[in-house]
Amino acid sequence: MGLTEYREEIDAIDRQIVELFQQRMRVAGDIARCKQETGAPVLDRDRETEKMRQIGELADENMAQYCKMLYNKILEMSRDYQRRLLDR
């Protein structure tokens, strides 16, 4: 396979990532509404700690650090999105 084919593969993967990310954020919005109804705070440190542990276990050893970096950002964006929805 050459550079063009690898880039096409990356483009296809990126389309899937965007679709799944948007789906995840929609669910995060649903969670925000549930939290609002129950009075729960947006940040759940225990849940995030557990999620990061799970991500570390799911990832290959040589990718665990990068997956954790990615999920730190995803969780940050999820909290931001939830707060924006609740501030409306």
Automatic annotation (TrEMBL):
Keywords, in A-Z order: Isomerase
InterPro entries: Chorismate_II_sf, Chorismate_mutase-related, Chorismate_mutase_highGC-bac, CM_dom_sf, CM_II_prokaryot
Stretches assigned to the Chorismate mutase domain: 1-86
Alphabetical list of Gene3D superfamilies matching this protein: Chorismate mutase
Molecular function per GO: chorismate mutase activity
Pfam families according to UniProt: CM_2
SUPFAM superfamilies hit by this protein: Chorismate mutase II (SSF48600)
One GO term of the biological process aspect: salicylic acid biosynthetic process
Official protein name in the record: Chorismate mutase
Organism, as annotated: Hornefia porci
Lineage: Bacteria, Bacillati, Bacillota, Clostridia, Peptostreptococcales
